[in-house]
Amino acid sequence: MDTVKIKSICGKFPGATSQLYGHPSNILAYFVGDKRFAHFKTSEPEKWRFSIRVTPDRFVELTDVPGIKPAKYFARFHWVTIVNPRSLSADYLNELIDWSYRKALGSLSKTRQLELLGTGKISPSSR
Questions:
Q1: For residues 85-112, average pLDDT
Q2: pLDDT by residue (tens digit) across 31-42?
Q3: Is 35 exposed, middle or buried (0-12, 13-18, 19+ CB in 10 A)?
Q4: Average pLDDT, the chain
Q5: What are the contacts of 102-107 at 24+ separation with CB within 8 A?
Q6: Span 19-43, mean pLDDT?
Q7: How much is the average pLDDT of 55-68?
Q8: What is the 3-state secondary structure (H, E, C) of the chain?
Q9: pLDDT at 127
């Protein structure tokens, strides 16, 4: 999956917003509420590397895969950096992004979740 498709997926989640941080950070970050669920590095080296939060088990599994490493400064929170997002299948990457979004959404108050989702109820998978 290319970066254009990944950015499109990240932007389509209910309540998702993005913010571009210029120099010195050079990061395009995706948020739900005030919680980050994904980001891209927008400068060299490794331009367009992609980082997301994963489960502790997936963190161990993924960091053993070539081209996937613990995310700088975020690894202690189980974030991984995927140097080349095309190295993973689209379905698997979709699943990882969805989990990261739902983890961020679930850390918000129930009231805020309802506001962002625009519904009267919270789906069981966002808990």
A1: 94
A2: 999 999 999 999
A3: middle
A4: 90
A5: 102/126, 103/37, 103/53, 104/31, 104/32, 104/33, 104/35, 104/36, 104/37, 104/53, 105/15, 105/32, 105/33, 105/35, 105/37, 107/35
A6: 93
A7: 93
A8: CCHHHHHHHHHCCCCEEEEEECCCCCEEEEEECCEEEEEEECCCCCCCCEEEECCHHHHHHHCCCCCEEECCCCHHHCEEEECCHHHCCHHHHHHHHHHHHHHHHHCCCHHHHHHHHCCCCCCHHHC
A9: 46
Name the residue type at position 3: T
Structure token pair of residue 56 = 């502790």
Residue type, 53: R
